[in-house]
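At this stage, I put together a protein sequence along with its fold in token form, as given directly below:
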Amino acid sequence: MPRPDGEPSRIQLLQGTLDFIVLQTLRWGPRHGYGIVQMIRAQSTNVLQVETGSLYPALQRLLRQRLIRGEWSVSENRRRVRVYHLTPKGRERLAAERSRWGKLTEAIAAIMARPVSEEP
């Protein structure tokens, strides 16, 4: 729920970040839930650890928004798994989010690069 000033709440920001990361992960190809978790962990050099309790609600949000689609398949372990794919609408959203994140990271990098002043 947005705050009174119109800004998204912290939970929405975290959900939005996870949604973005999931979309980015699916950009590299279809994956089942555990594969998404493993890819996020590997690509972030173990810095980002997504728990299934957070991942599956994110996948449901993305399915409802039609940003991804899921289909049942059989894994290499012969288990039934749901494999998620990025949709054309999801690719469009990902492109917009990548642009927004690029601007955000540039702004943060500029702040971090500024020398520390010696003022009290």
Remarks:
- Confidence is low (pLDDT under 50) at residues 8-13.
- The first strand starts at residue 31 and ends at 32.
- Helices lie at 10-27, 33-43, 52-64, 88-113.
- The chain has one domain: 10-109.
